[in-house]
Amino acid sequence: MLGKAIGIFDSGVGGLTVFKEVADLLPRENLIYLGDTARVPYGSKSVKTVQRYALEAAEFLVDRGVKLLVVACNTASAVALEQLRERFQLPVIGVIEPGARRACASRNRRIGVIGTEGTINSGRYPQAISALVPDARIFSIACPLFVPLAEEGWAEHEIARLTALEYLQPLLKAQIDTLVLGCTHYPLLHNTLRGIFGADVLLVDSAEETAKTVQQLFCRQGLENPDSGGRREFYVTDVPTRFERVGQAFLGAELGRVVQVEIG
Amino acid sequence: MLGKAIGIFDSGVGGLTVFKEVADLLPRENLIYLGDTARVPYGSKSVKTVQRYALEAAEFLVDRGVKLLVVACNTASAVALEQLRERFQLPVIGVIEPGARRACASRNRRIGVIGTEGTINSGRYPQAISALVPDARIFSIACPLFVPLAEEGWAEHEIARLTALEYLQPLLKAQIDTLVLGCTHYPLLHNTLRGIFGADVLLVDSAEETAKTVQQLFCRQGLENPDSGGRREFYVTDVPTRFERVGQAFLGAELGRVVQVEIG
Which residues are the active-site ones (chains A, B) (predicted)? Predict the structure, then answer.
């Protein structure tokens, strides 16, 4: 018999960075991924609309009997996590708290946060970081062009570098020593950001931190299914073609079969 | 009594360029605009999903008793126009045919078309142009970053110029004398494109051409309501804040009240 799976959802393809890290740390667990590609992006939409979409996405996964829900989308984590926890009787892990915890490694307590408009406007990263490091100075900037640049395959293009320089001047000026990549697409811009901030600024990848949090929870709550077989399932709400193509860059591997479903 | 209105819909805010041109040519007509901002963009989504969204948007306007439907979205015009014409008993005007007609002014019959992935992949512009000028050479390029650049307010920024240069090299090389701006956002990049192509290339703005087509149809079919009062109504599917803010740049004026509705 197959063990219960971990359910992971995102507005689209970006959450595959989280999926990849979870799969690396827990290779024998079954994983189900849902990308809401018919309604992507969430980052420029309103709190209410993102909450509705997140509930519908979570419902799809819960109906498939997952034992744990990972909200791989920063925007949905920022505005819908409490609602999901209230609604569903299973552990729900978002990407904000794990990223915020890692950011506390900052030595000068000057921390930058970048993300979508929705994530930055929510103020959830500063809130989560301040709860852990009350005297941290936090500098938040929305970078709406980073997602389309990453999806265009231009994450390391000169235009991405110039765009990043334009957005991130205030963070350079603020002399941050830690930068939270508060969007699942941004790890693709890692080299571009490293080029701008140099070797000394810690780049926090929420995907890695979230996967570690999932692993810790599994240890603590005894949620592991070591005999599950490591099945992977991918679902999307629009036709899979584009997801399959762009998804490879995020997963660093071929996805296998992707199934289109209706939600909401 | 109020006369019947013209209904105009788009995936979001871009169709306001069409709205503006129609309002300029037919100032006394009543106009209803719907922007499907909860599901924007259409340009990167599949044919089937865009068809479903377009039918739902059109239905909303038809239910409000419009006498004419304008599909201001290039992607929806490219993939859903036939379906809309079959479904609804009223004139339906898209933006592709008017733009294609204008492109026939080309003297060297070397015509460029730029648009979203959905519009370019549909092949509808080349099809419509070739039907009018069978020996035209048509060069089509998708420019996915133009929409986010325009929405970021960077349409005339150096980064927009570099992005355009990157996308449009093949069109410069092809020595086109006519360029169809096949997306409602692109008129905002007019100056940037003019800088790249120089004064001699005709830039075809589908919005203007579509408005002229509406006006001609009104003349021909006697659809005018000269006493309607020029009422304007704006509806969106997500909360209006962002639409109101970004919309001003497209309309060149304040929008007044914008109402959120559910469709689909």
Answer: 73 (proton donor/acceptor), 183 (proton donor/acceptor)
Q: CA separation (Å) from B58 to B33, B41, B124?
A: 11, 16, 20
In tens, the pLDDT along A84-140 reads 999 999 999 999 999 999 999 999 999 999 999 999 999 999 999 999 999 999 999
For residues B31 and B116, membership in a common domain is answered with: no
Q: What phi and psi values does residue B179 have, to the nearest 5 degrees?
A: -130, 120
Task: For B264, name the nearest residue in chain A, comparing CA atoms only.
Answer: A264
A218 & A161 share domain: no
DSSP, residue by residue, A130-148? HHH-TT-EEEEEE-TTHHH
Instruction: Find the domain containing A223 and state its range.
Output: 6-95+208-260
CB contact under 8 A, A149 and B145: yes
User: Cβ contact (<8 Å) for A239 and B49?
Assistant: yes
Catalytic-residue membership of A73: yes
Residue B106 is assigned to a structural domain of this protein: yes
Q: Give pLDDT tens digits for B212-221.
A: 999 999 999 8
Smallest Cα distance from B251 to chain A, Å: 20
Domain identity same for B106 and B189: yes
- Listed in sequence order, the residues at least 6 apart from B115 whose beta carbon sits closer than 8 Å to its beta carbon are B43, B74, B75, B78, B125, B140, B142, B143, B182, B183, B186
State the Cα–Cα distance between residues B230 and B3, nearest whole angstrom. Answer: 10
Mutate which: A163, A167, A244, vs B, most B CBs within 10 A: A163
| Total of domains in chain A | 2
Q: Return the DSSP state at A4.
A: P
| Domain containing residue B193: CATH number | 3.40.50.1860
Model ipTM value: 0.93
Q: Are residues B35 and B108 in the same domain?
A: no
Sites in chain B below the pLDDT cut of 50 = 1
Q: What is the mean pLDDT of each run of 10 residues along chain A (264 residues)?
A: 84 96 95 97 96 98 96 98 97 98 97 97 98 98 97 96 98 98 95 97 95 95 83 96 89 90 92
Rounded Cα distance, B28 and A207, in Å: 55
CA nearest A147 in B: which residue?
B148
Q: B183 catalytic, yes or no?
A: yes
**Of A189, A206, A223, which residue is a domain's last?**
A206
Considering the domain architecture, whether residues B143 and B229 belong to the same structural domain is answered as: no
Contacts of B247 in chain A (CB under 8 A): none
